[in-house]
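Page 37, continued from 36.
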């Protein structure tokens, strides 16, 4: 019989195994935070991790590249960086994240109502 702790440990190990390669460090040295590869050439992070329009992004294989800010949702504390992701895998989103009002969007804005319309952070359109 499997205990609840064993089930939890198994679940956490599976998540780490699946998502871990998509996680990146934001900033130089020890970094200011983390982000995730969300698609080819795109990394999602918290906006408060940034100190300007460019930052160092370090991948799990040790490779670093300069990421450039292409979208920000300051109210939601989210930012999207354009960066050479090379062969880094993108995180796989669950069905709850498929719509702007899904639980992932609510999780990103826990103390606020879901934002109306599309978030600039989800856009690949350059900022002006």
């Amino acid at each position: 019989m499997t205990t609840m702790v064993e089930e939890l440990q198994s679940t956490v190990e599976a998540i780490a195994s699946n998502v871990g390669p998509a996680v990146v460090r934001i900033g130089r040295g020890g970094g200011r935070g983390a982000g995730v590869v969300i698609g080819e050439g795109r990394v999602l992070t918290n906006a408060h991790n940034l100190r300007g329009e460019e930052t160092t992004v370090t991948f799990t294989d040790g490779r670093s590249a300069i990421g450039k800010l292409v979208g920000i949702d300051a109210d939601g504390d989210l930012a999207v960086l354009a960066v050479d992701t090379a062969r880094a895998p993108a995180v796989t989103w669950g069905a709850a994240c498929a719509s702007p009002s899904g639980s992932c969007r609510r999780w990103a804005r826990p103390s606020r109502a879901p934002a109306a319309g599309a978030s600039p952070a989800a856009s690949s359109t350059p900022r002006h």
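Residues 105-128 have pLDDT under 50 and may be disordered. Flag for discussion at group meeting. The chain is about 15% helix and 30% strand.
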